[in-house]
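Sequence only, no structure available. Ideas?
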Amino acid sequence: MKQKSLILFAILVVAAAALYRWSGRHVELTVTDDTENVEAAGPTGVWTDPATRLMWQARDNGYDIDQKDSKIFCTNTRVGGFSDWRVPTIDELKSVYYIGDNDYGYRIKGNIKLTGLYQWSSEAGLDLYFHSGESNQYRYYDGRVLCVRPAGK
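Reply:
I predicted one. Tokens follow.
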């Protein structure tokens, strides 16, 4: 049953990415309770960092977007029953960078699933490279986004 759910989820992600590229419009992607991140991040598709009290999505958006669209993506995201998601600051991204690979092979705390190494921050043109922990500014290609919100609100 879980394998069928994962296959269906993968098909939906691919379809959403294709529609996004075809239409040039934002496609809302919602992480639901039957994703592979449930055990790692909790039953709602989120993970709360006990050190910062920030709540993170259990996975990034899953496809390359530009920084402007990363803000639209987070603003329109509905995960874990919350609708106040936003793009993290570079310092917030650095707070979840972890030296040592998680179960998915990325250097991030909380067993969050990243599908790309470059994650956008809210600062103009600035992202974090989740292999070295270095921030990059004014890259000329797209990245992914991992949305965040304050926990306890």
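The first strand starts at residue 46 and ends at 49.
Hope that gets you unstuck.
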